[in-house]
Design goal:
The chain has 240 residues and is α/β, with parallel strands linked by helices. Helices cover 42% and strands 21% of the residues. It has one domain: Rossmann fold (3-Layer(aba) Sandwich). It is globular and about 45 Å long.
Length: 240
């Protein structure tokens, strides 16, 4: 898992980009959808994404005034929750459009690739990341750099989309995620971007493989919890 492909593939309607082509495509996509990103999130999740973010921040269980990096921070939703809980968030995203569209959080902002972060080793008390794992070019490199920047005893909380394990729920979720969500995105923002969203779940390795890779990177107490019937997943861990 997490090996950067030697050759890029280009995106079309039936395939997903890899390597540097994925990096460019994802960056351009998020720059494009940034102005209405929050609105589309609220509508397509019926506001559940705010509940999931609060759950992620609670799961950190860090003392007040802890320094928390919010990676792939987008427009700052998790930074707002972190600040309200008494933490000191730093917003990190490689999309300048997303960082520029953050009109609500007061967190410092850093434009950077989260697979090679411009932070010293063991400098963060915690990390959050919301709905972005499948967008990274190399998930293994991300986990390794995550372990580098988080201090021993620090905590991470990684949120992402998921498919329910229950067969009936999975069927209904598939109809909504692959059929309705792109239409919502098309009406309110960019249809092509929200067609990518459900397809991008294919980038994620099997859950057991992800958890094992986090342990190999240097984390312990690695857990995965399904939220709202399996529409989302929350992975938490402690740095050794």
């Amino acid at each position: 898992m997490g090996v950067r492909p030697a050759r890029d593939t280009q995106s079309d309607d039936d395939s997903l980009p890899t390597g540097e082509a994925k990096h460019r495509a994802v960056q351009q996509m998020f720059d494009t959808i940034a102005p209405r990103y929050d609105l589309v999130n609220r509508v397509m999740t019926f506001g559940l994404d705010t509940r999931w973010r609060r759950r992620a921040v609670r799961s950190l269980s860090l003392p007040p005034h802890s320094l928390v990096l919010d990676l792939a921070s987008g427009t700052g939703d998790l930074c707002i929750v972190l600040a309200r809980s008494g933490q000191r968030p730093i917003s990190v995203d490689f999309s300048f459009g997303m960082l520029s569209a953050d009109h609500r959080s007061s967190a410092p902002r850093v434009q950077a690739d989260v697979c090679s972060m411009p932070f010293p080793a063991a400098s963060a008390d915690g990390v959050t990341c919301g709905f972005a794992l499948r967008n990274f070019v190399d998930l293994g490199l991300f986990f390794d750099d995550l372990a580098r920047v988080v201090r021993p005893g620090g905590r991470i909380a990684l949120l992402d989309a998921c498919e329910p394990e229950n067969r009936i729920l999975r069927w209904g979720h598939g109809l909504y995620f692959r059929g309705v969500v792109p239409r919502i995105g098309g009406l309110l923002s960019d249809r092509r971007a929200y067609r990518y969203l459900p397809k991008s779940l294919a980038y994620l390795p099997p859950p057991a493989e992800m958890l094992a890779r986090l342990e190999a990177a240097g984390f312990t107490a690695v857990t995965r919890v399904l939220l709202t019937g399996g529409a989302a997943q929350l992975i938490t861990a402690t740095r050794l």
